[in-house]
């Protein structure tokens, strides 16, 4: 059974940092890419960042480029999202998702999408950034 479990959300002041974690199990890690999405109240889900597990290739949405960093520990089947310089508009539920690995362009498409192409999803973790 495929499982994606997010953790690390919480309340932080603007300008602060949080690190989200995604624990993955039930599939061959290197055959997949992992993407983070978020959904703010009343808004559509949007892509945040993605990483291809086999070689660490990454992609970011323009809204988080330079502030967020996605990384992985393949030995532990873990993916992380380091979020720095947080802004109130980063407040959202953050979701970890998995899709079959493809060329790097796929990652760039995912972070511009609402996640409809992803195969598996976690239940999410809430990030609240206060002003």
Set out the fold topology.
Layout: E1 3-7, E2 10-13, E3 18-25, E4 32-39, E5 46-52, E6 58-60, E7 68-73, E8 78-83, E9 92-100, H1 104-110, E10 120-121, E11 125-130
Parallel strand pairs: 2-11
Antiparallel strand pairs: 1-3, 3-8, 4-5, 4-9, 5-6, 7-8, 9-10, 9-11
Care to describe what's here?
By secondary structure, the protein is mainly β. Helices cover 5% and strands 49% of the residues. The protein is built from 1 helix and 11 strands, in the order βββββββββαββ. The protein has one helix at residues 104-110, and strands spanning 3-7, 10-13, 18-25, 32-39, 46-52, 58-60, 68-73, 78-83, 92-100, 120-121, 125-130. The strands form 2 sheets. Strands 2, 4, 5, 6, 9, 10 and 11 form a 7-stranded mixed beta sheet that branches. A hairpin with a 6-residue loop joins β4 and β5. The chain is globular and about 40 Å long. The N and C termini lie far apart (40 Å). The model has no long low-confidence stretch (mean pLDDT 96).
């Amino acid at each position: 059974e495929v499982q994606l479990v997010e953790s690390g959300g919480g309340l932080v002041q603007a300008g602060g940092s949080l690190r989200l974690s995604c624990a993955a199990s039930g599939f061959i890690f290197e055959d997949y890419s992992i993407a983070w999405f978020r959904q703010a109240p009343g808004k559509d889900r949007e892509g945040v960042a993605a990483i291809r597990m086999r070689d660490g290739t990454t992609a970011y949405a323009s809204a988080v480029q330079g502030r967020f960093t996605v990384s992985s520990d393949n030995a532990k089947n873990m993916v992380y999202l380091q979020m720095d310089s947080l802004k109130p508009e980063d407040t959202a539920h953050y979701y970890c998702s998995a899709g079959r690995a493809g060329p790097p362009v796929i990652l760039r498409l995912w972070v511009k999408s609402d996640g409809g192409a992803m195969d598996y999803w976690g239940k999410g973790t809430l990030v609240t950034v206060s002003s």
